[in-house]
Amino acid sequence: MTANTADQNSSTTLPALQQALHAVRAGNMRTAEECLTAFIARKFDLDIQDGDLNIRQDTISLNSVNGLFTTANGQKFFFKFHLEEDEGDTVAEYYRAGLLDKAGYPVEQPCYVSTTVGEQILIYPYVAHTRLFDACKNNEQANSDTANAIITAQQQLDRLCADKAQETMTIGTQQDYEAEPLLQLFYWRLVDTTPNGDRTGGRHKQFYIGKTFAFPHDVTLSYADLSALTWNINGIDYDITLDQAFANARATLAPNAIDTYPACTAHGDAHNGNVWLREQSGSTYDLAYFDPAFAGEKIPVLLAEIKTTFHNILAHPEWLYDAKEADNKLDVRADVKDGKLYVRHSWDLPPLRRAFLDSKIENFWKPVLAQLAADNTLPENWEAFIRAALFCCPALVMNLRAGEGTAQNTHTQKTSLLGLSIAIMCATRASNGDDIITDFINRIQP
Ligand SMILES: Nc1ncnc2c1ncn2[C@@H]1O[C@H](COP(=O)(O)OP(=O)(O)O)[C@@H](O)[C@H]1O
Ligand SMILES: [Mg+2]
Q: I need a labelling partner for 237 at 20 to 30 A (CA). Which of 105, 120, 189, 436 fits?
């Protein structure tokens, strides 16, 4: 790692980051910016003038404060630090960027780092590229030159990920599995705190249990009623209830269900909002990761590309991220009869996402699963594991109930029902027909 690391035992007594945090929380951005300017300038011996540092007000999350600053000689930087006493995250991100870099993944590295307790902050060189998320949104129809160049870049990254997974492949233990930060996006969203395979909790409880669901055509169901229904989606039957889908995911992803497993080094959370589309010469692109908060060296191989498979492909066009926009173009109907929820929807993958799915299958999943099969390390329940993990993506990344979602995106009755239908399709094979997820599983089967 080449970052300038400020020493671990600085004698500084001023809790400058704490002051900045208090100011951010109180909504005093100007004070926070002055505080950060003085802190960063002193800490890293940089010449930053008042007014040259700005906190990104549009994305202040519960987890991190970030923004941009410019030094007197015109150099631009991005800074980032995490909130709360649990300061591990900032240093962990630094460490994880390093381990991805070491494995040969393209990932942004911080250029200044402070690991001092109470003063943990990362400074990255400013990046002016477009996020892949934004570029894809503007190129859903895969027939423009730009869309084709994006697909080529994605194919290259998928091939690289397969190579890196194979190069770093190892066998993990139950302890390794339980300790992987990436599980925070899967298993730990399903349960309260203990690694007990059937303890209902986490976001499952917080988002859904005891709540009411409003679907199109005045279908309103309590969680108790909804979660007891089986599903018929676009004419085919899924003999599973929402409650069973959650229970399967809890049981399948639980640490106590894993003895040993094939593991590798991976980013794990490389949704397109954490990927830069870097313009190269001659209208070509390559992709680079940033924000490797959940990267690890013992990520289950079967989990490494679940987030990318779901969020960069199946979550589109827009229904997960911009429900209002998707709602206008979608037809989604609900009907309850004889213990079954009948859904009709018009959702389909746009051409760009189909091309991404093909690439993910051909360039990542097929070679990697074939390798596991050849090594005799492919878990017997690989399909159930992949399905359980895919199910968690729509079900638990944000609240899927109509009127809920995130601060930027509120689900509608249509996107709510569509999201749950897609989650059910992830959870199990239909009993009398194939859908896009089953086609995916059939194609990657070694
Ligand atoms: N090096 C950088 N230069 C300029 N902008 C950046 C840089 N890194 C991240 N950003 C912007 O800041 C946003 C948040 O950064 P990210 O590291 O993803 O933090 P978070 O943990 O909040 O997701 C990104 O979506 C991107 O738009
Ligand atoms: Mg991010």
A: 189
The answer on pLDDT for 96 being more than 90 is yes
- Which two three-digit tokens encode residue 56? 């990104």
H or E segment and range at residue 261? strand 260-266
pLDDT at res. 8: 44
Ligand 2 centroid to residue 61 C-alpha, Å: 10
**Given the structure tokens 């194939």, which residue do they identify?**
434
Instruction: Please tell me what DSSP assigns to residue 357.
Output: H
The region of weakest confidence among 1-10, 223-232, 341-350 is: 1-10
C-alpha of 226 from chain center: 27
For tokens 């089986």, the residue is 230
pLDDT reported for residue 331 = 98
Summarised one tens digit per residue, pLDDT across range 120-172 is 999 999 999 999 999 999 998 878 899 999 999 999 999 999 999 999 999 99
State which ligand 1 atom lies nearest to the alpha carbon of 124.
Answer: 1
Q: Check if 364 has its Cβ closer than 6 Å to any atom of ligand 1.
A: no
**Ligand 1 atom index nearest CA of 76:** 3
Q: Which of 127, 96, 124, 100 is nearest to 110 (CA)?
A: 124
Q: Are 343 and 232 in contact (CB under 8 A)?
A: yes
Instruction: Kindly identify the ligand whose nearest atom is closest to the C-alpha of 108.
Output: 1
Ligand 1 centre distance from Cα of residue 268 (Å): 17
Helix locations, 254-378, DSSP H: 301-304, 306-309, 323-329, 351-359, 366-375
User: What is the C-alpha separation between 442 and 361, in angstroms, rounded?
Assistant: 10
Centroid of chain to Cα 87: 21
pLDDT tens for residues 14-39? 578 888 888 888 889 999 999 999 99
Q: Is the pTM of this model over 0.85?
A: yes
Residues 387, 426: contact at Cβ < 8 Å?
A: yes
Q: How far is the CA of 79 from the centre of ligand 1 (A)?
A: 9
Per mean pLDDT, which range of 44-58, 194-208, 338-352, 368-382 is the poorest?
194-208
pLDDT of residue 2: 55
Domains of the chain in sequence order: 4-128 (3.30.200.20), 131-444 (3.90.1200)
Q: Indicate the average pLDDT of the chain.
A: 92
